[in-house]
Write a structure and sequence with these properties.
Blueprint lengths: L6 E10 L10 E9 L2 H14 L17 H10 L5 E9 L12 H15 L5 E7 L5 H14 L8 E6 L5 H19 L11 E5 L8
Helix pairs in contact: 3-4
Organism: Methanobrevibacter ruminantium (strain ATCC 35063 / DSM 1093 / JCM 13430 / OCM 146 / M1) (Methanobacterium ruminantium)
Protein name: DUF3800 domain-containing protein
InterPro entries: DUF3800 (IPR024524)
């Protein structure tokens, strides 16, 4: 009997911003969802669109910020049919100036992504998709090097890292909804959505003794 090849898929997105204006968010959240079958995430979205044609936005891309309330609930509940893990970091921006390079949003974003990477356990060859926020080649190269070095990949499984448009991957759209749900909890004290997310590993970063 031949060896079974296992591949993991990880989709990463964020909510909130790293701005410093009064209108900016208080928190920045980054979340990744890990699955062994990315098509199951695709099927969750397709089924919701098929069953709720009258209510769901007709765009090819779904986002936590623009979905009807009941659709968000349905998607998060339907994830129960998927074997997944969720990795999350929460950053309270009042702490940004305690962080090296906290004044530089590009470097701060990379540091926060590396904190997320530290939470992700790699147990097989993996493809990682990050919602695209960088366009300069040098920034992407620097990010990829730091992110890959910080993954829990002790057995050195092969990793492919792609900065992708969420329009192209339903998994990134699910990651957007998950990061939005966590953001609602910390920014607006609304736990309705976060309570529906199972198998989650959450860490507050760059602050003391506030792990969830």
């Amino acid at each position: 009997m031949g060896k079974v090849f296992i591949m993991s898929y990880i989709f990463i997105d964020e909510s909130g911003d790293l701005g410093t204006k009064k209108s900016s968010s208080k928190y920045f959240v980054m979340a990744g969802i890990k699955v062994e079958d990315s098509q199951k995430l695709d099927r969750v979205i397709r089924k919701i669109k098929r069953d709720d044609k009258k209510n769901i936005i007709t765009s090819n891309e779904i986002k936590g910020s623009n979905l009807p309330h009941d659709i968000k609930i349905k998607i998060l509940k339907k994830l129960d049919s998927v074997n997944y893990q969720v990795f999350i970091i929460i950053f309270e921006k009042i702490n940004r100036y305690k962080v090296n390079d906290g004044y530089d949003n590009i470097k701060l974003y990379d540091l926060l992504a590396c904190e997320l990477a530290k939470q992700i356990d790699i147990s097989s060859s993996s493809k990682i998709f990050i919602d695209k926020s960088k366009n300069k080649k040098e920034e992407i190269v620097n990010f990829n090097k730091a992110f890959l070095e910080n993954l829990n990949n002790f057995k050195k499984f092969p990793i492919k890292l792609e900065h992708a448009n969420s329009m192209s991957y339903k998994g990134l759209q699910i990651a957007d909804l998950i990061s939005w749900a966590i953001f609602q909890s910390v920014e607006h004290n609304n736990n309705e959505f976060i309570d529906l997310i199972k198998n989650k590993k959450i860490k507050r970063v760059f602050e003391e003794k506030k792990n969830l």
